[in-house]
Amino acid sequence: MDRRDSLKSLVFGSIGVGVLLQGCVSGVDSETVANSLKKFNYGRTPSEKEYDKLLFSKKCFTNNQMKLISEISNLILPPNEFGSVNDAEVPELIEFMAKDIPSYEKPLKEGLVALNQHSNKKFQKVFIDCDENQQKSILDLMAFPDPELSNSEQSEDIKWFSLFRNLTMTGYYTSKVGIKELGYKGNTPNVWDGVPQDVLDKYGLSYDKEWLDKCVDQTKRNDVAQWDEEGNLIT
Q1: This prediction's pTM
Q2: pLDDT tens digits along 147-172
Q3: What one-character-per-residue DSSP string does the chain give?
Q4: Could you tell me the residue ranges of all domains in the chain?
Q5: How far is residue 19 from each of residues 78, 137, 166, measured CA to CA in Å?
């Protein structure tokens, strides 16, 4: 099982894999806000719509921070034939979560700063300017919690990366792209041919052939039933 399959198994194994309001900088144009809201208007109460509008109108991360978030997300889940974390809008989800859950904002930002500090110390350049092997060598130091310690006892780097990885996985595997990769199809209709004959025989029952032809004929499964004025089925 490769790393990506391991991550996918975590998604299947626990619905709680994900960690699934104070903005920092305003200035997002109204058209962007309107387009974002169109995706989430279904099933929302008026107060929820107003709350969403407030969140979408604020910008939490700078453009450089968003590029860094995208870079890290793509290292956690590299693009494949199904798509990428950018197709799934994972960076946008991470920013939304940082605005929606205030306790996420500070550790996420501090983690991005610490990442560049580690990079500058080790390679004398910011993380995004490092090559992939250099980037992975830094993240590998944060990717494996000590099994002997509780979550609260882990280092700040490890706690940050765990949060970031969970957000990335949640965002990707709950998107259209990620669900397609998982192969999840949900409930799908099947063909019902009536009660099995052995069950009917057990109770001494049988279908009326005329009704059977009318009601359990799969060639007519998409026909709309019609009745005459006396309540008799005519189709």
Answers
A1: 0.67
A2: 998 888 999 999 999 999 999 999 99
A3: --HHHHHHHHHHH-GGGS-----SEE---HHHHHHHHHTT-TT--HHHHHHHHHHHTEE-S-HHHHHHHHHHHHHHS--BTTB-TTTTTHHHHHHHHHHHSHHHHHHHHHHHHHHHHHHHHHHSS-GGGS-HHHHHHHHTTTSS--TTS-GGGS-HHHHHHHHHHHHHHHHHHTSHHHHHHHT-----------S-HHHHHHTT----HHHHHHHS-GGGTTSPP-B-TTS-B--
A4: 3-24+60-182, 190-235
A5: 21, 26, 7
